[in-house]
Design brief:
Elements (H helix, E strand, L loop, with lengths): L11 H11 L2 H8 L6 H10 L19 E3 L2 E3 L3 E3 L5 H4 L3 H12 L4 E3 L6 H7 L5 E4 L5 H13 L4 E5 L9 H6 L9 H8 L2 H10 L17 H11 L6 H10 L3 E7 L2 H9 L4 E4 L14 H11 L4 E5 L5 H9 L4 E4 L1 H10 L3 H20 L13
Parallel strand pairs: 3-10, 4-5, 5-6, 6-7, 7-8, 8-9, 9-10
Antiparallel strand pairs: 1-2
The structure holds flavin mononucleotide.
């Protein structure tokens, strides 16, 4: 097998362990944690891994092809970078690193509303291929302005998030006083001093800020005021009335992210979405919820002919991606995994993680004697 990544870190667990050593604790815990008692965080991966695939060795085989067509564009593999907020706080310049790697690997990159790179830059770095995830703005004017910017930047796919009607209850972040920029408490200063590479890069790239939101954010707000501003500006709670003007205005593809029930999948179809991402936000919102693989199977059975079905939450490897695809996802996204890669290996982390996942997934298809990604459901046990 040929490797185009550093085989010192051949698994996600290697990257996670290395990222743990390189990131300040408050940043690593923001990335790594779920919510409440982390039950759903662990359930996502554990239940996904109950999916088993059956190899078929004695047959004609022409080789594996990972290429996957989604919304009219053919990507090199059936996975992409999920939207993640505050990326530059976790690793300086990380959204740029991941956007560039996604372009190089021909994979989709989704920019979060609340990350540290703006829509225009994401589009520039990906030759107009970056998708944009929208937190629902409370105000129509702000919403329309952001949609106009995304359209002007030629964003092909808008991803509307529905699973943050309230912020997740995340005890580690409360304890760490997580904020952007980081609060300079003694504990945080000590953590930063122990992570010189992170500190050096933060100085080099400057204090991370919510780049897309800069034009709307009053200058000189203290942290408390910034928090209040964000609360007033965004209302994550969605209903049909709020969704309709977005569908009317947005001419590109529209995807609903955070679908975890058949009812919401049906609503997405009725409201004219082109796709859904079945997701529980990586177990960061509802600790008492199901693993994402469970609604994925039900939704795919019922609605796969009516809407494009994608999934995220819990995948950490090529076999995990294969399990999700075999269970009815047409495409997958990973959140933490790419950030573990960048936290571990800096500028090389995006390429490393993408190359590693491609190699792992390719091996699974070859082992199953499966030729293309869309055939994976035929191999489920
Ligand atoms: C640190 C962190 C920040 C996130 N921020 C956002 C965000 O701003 N917008 C969004 O739609 N999803 C956000 N998500 C959720 C991811 O897009 C994705 O649903 C989740 O990470 C998938 O689970 P996984 O991490 O197990 O792959 C975030 C996830 C993490 C881990």
């Amino acid at each position: 097998m040929a490797f185009d990544f550093d085989t010192k870190y051949p698994s996600m667990e290697d990257l996670r362990a290395k990222a743990y050593k390189k990131m300040p604790r408050f940043a690593f815990e923001y990335l790594d944690g779920g919510c409440n008692e982390d039950i759903n965080l662990h359930r996502n991966t554990a239940e996904l891994r109950e999916v088993k695939l059956k190899p078929r060795y004695i047959r004609e085989y022409k080789g594996a092809n990972l290429k996957t067509t989604l919304f009219g564009k053919t990507y090199d593999a059936p996975f992409g970078v999920a939207p993640v907020g505050l990326q530059g706080l976790m690793w300086p310049n990380s959204p740029e690193i991941l956007a560039k790697a996604a372009l190089q690997h021909n994979l989709p990159f989704i920019l979060s509303t609340v990350t540290t790179m703006n829509i225009e830059r994401a589009s520039e770095l990906t030759n107009g291929n970056a998708w944009f995830q929208l937190y629902n703005p409370a105000e129509d004017t702000l919403r329309n302005n952001i949609l106009d910017r995304a359209a002007a930047a030629e964003v092909p796919v808008l991803v509307l998030l529905c699973d943050v009607p309230t912020f997740g209850y995340r005890p580690r972040d409360f304890r760490n006083g997580l904020a952007l920029p980081p609060k300079m408490t003694l504990a945080n200063i000590l953590q930063i001093l122990g992570r010189p590479h992170w500190a050096f890069n933060t100085l080099k790239y400057g204090t991370p800020t919510f780049e897309t939101l800069k034009p709307y954010t009053p200058e000189g707000l203290n942290l408390k005021q910034l928090g209040q501003f964000m609360d007033q500006t965004f209302s994550g709670r969605l209903n049909e009335e709020r969704i309709k003007p977005i569908r009317d205005k947005w001419k590109g593809k529209l995807v609903l992210k955070g679908v975890a029930s058949e009812e919401d999948a049906l609503a997405a179809i009725r409201l004219g979405f082109d796709g859904i991402i079945v997701s529980n936000h990586g177990g960061r919102q509802l600790d008492a919820g199901e693993a994402a693989i469970a609604p994925l199977k039900r939704i795919s059975e019922k609605y796969k002919d009516q809407i494009t079905i994608m999934m995220d939450s819990g995948m950490r490897s090529g076999p995990d991606i294969a399990r999700a695809l075999a269970s009815g996802a047409e495409f997958t996204f990973l959140g933490r995994s790419f950030m573990y890669g960048v936290g571990a290996l800096g500028n090389k982390g995006g390429n490393h993680t993408m190359a590693m996942l491609k190699t792992e997934l390719q091996q699974v298809l070859e082992q199953l004697c499966c030729e293309k990604v869309t055939d994976l459901p035929n191999f489920i046990l």
